[in-house]
Amino acid sequence: MTEADAADDPTGFTALESEVRSYSRAWPVVFDRAQGSTVYAEDGTAYLDFFAGAGSLNYGHNEPRLKQVLVDYLMDDRMVHTLDMLTTARREFLETFRDHVLAPRGLDHKVVFPGPGGANAVEAALKLARKVTGRESVINFTNAFHGMTLGALSVTGNSMKRGGAGIPLVHATPMPYDDYFDGDVPDFVYLERLLEDGGSGLNEPAAVIVETVQGEGGINAARAEWLRGLADLCKRHGILLILDDIQMGCGRTGGFFSFEEAGIVPDIICLSKSISGYGLPMALTLVRPDLDIWEPGEHNGTFRGFAPAFATASEALRLFWSDDTLEKETLRKGAFIEAHFNSLVARYGDDQMVAKGRGLARGLQLSDGELADRVTTEAFERGLLLETSGPRGEVVKLLPPLTITDDELQRGLKILSESVGAVLTPLAPYTKEDA
């Protein structure tokens, strides 16, 4: 590389890495270390992290107790790569997951280890739903995001991401998500009519796949009554309900599962991201026992048994899900953000900004993606990592670690307010003449 080339590529990555990279374009520094809710660039600059690995670090970076478990596991020469072999680490995780997550919630789902990432969990869910029902079609929702592999893309709404497939994405039918028509159309009236009309042309669905809060889609939070209505519709029509809890599970909205508030029990549940507790690759597809009709080896993958992730996941469940302390703290901090966002909306007007979200998945929807990008750029320059989401990138998205301190949360929100103020114009102050 010449000196001129180096000047155009100050981080040294452009010459070697694919153009497909994205986050590094928004945050053009080289990161080196991280602890808790703070990440550090190689020059020592600290950044408060309201991104948390896109929801993979609910317990923060390098949580000391989880780190010790991981170090001890490796230093003891424990099994690392295991496919689906029986190991002590796998048994410990399964029993801990049963005792701390499934049993307290009255769930008896079987655990499938589909591979290392969220898309693997979704692919397994879609594949099993089709195998169980003998049907091909799946209902998905507007602005949904379920992954970047072909099956997951077929039930994803974003046109840019779908366009990367290079082939037609078939066997999926999009339906309007909650409040897609701003309350002007009754819930499920369109889908129910299509399901009941023999002339509608809708193939009988194997499953419906849904997120309770659409993270990538723009922090769109479904109402509990809408989710209950969807579950009831699926039951009445013999359709399996797949709940994608990859980003919103593991406590992001309060309870361990994001659907707990609605009181529903999905047939199939997809988990990944923070399930390992430490940012290690791990995914689960949870299935009702009567749906577990796989033949041995019918669905597999080389990295479906990453044992160090079992070790950290088990410890994370013991540390954070033995009681409801984390859940209560997440709801409290979420309410604090909501109040702060409401004050911002009052300051700038609901024509410029809309507050969205649940728990510690929050968003500020601006009028377009350019404004949202400017806000996140201003925040980065002030030492705060934020991403955008939504079909046009118009939502400033907050996913801080659930373990963030009150001081860090307040400091981050102050930076966010300053960043919004650098981009938007506040409403004129109210005066006596306005009366």
TrEMBL record:
Organism: Isoptericola luteus
Needed cofactors: pyridoxal 5'-phosphate
Top-level taxonomic group: Bacteria
Protein name in the entry: Diaminobutyrate--2-oxoglutarate transaminase
MF terms (GO), sorted A to Z: diaminobutyrate-2-oxoglutarate transaminase activity
Gene3D superfamilies: Aspartate Aminotransferase, domain 1, Type I PLP-dependent aspartate aminotransferase-like (Major domain)
This protein's pathway: Amine and polyamine biosynthesis; ectoine biosynthesis; L-ectoine from L-aspartate 4-semialdehyde: step 1/3
Protein family per UniProt: Belongs to the class-III pyridoxal-phosphate-dependent aminotransferase family.
EC number: 2.6.1.76
The UniProt record lists the keyword Transferase: yes
Database matches in PROSITE patterns: AA_TRANSFER_CLASS_3 (PS00600)
Top enzyme category: transferase
The keyword Transferase appears for this protein: yes
PANTHER family: DIAMINOBUTYRATE--2-OXOGLUTARATE AMINOTRANSFERASE, DIAMINOBUTYRATE--2-OXOGLUTARATE TRANSAMINASE
InterPro entries: Aminotrans_3, Aminotrans_3_PPA_site, Dat, Ectoine_EctB, PyrdxlP-dep_Trfase, PyrdxlP-dep_Trfase_major, PyrdxlP-dep_Trfase_small
Keywords: Aminotransferase, Pyridoxal phosphate, Transferase
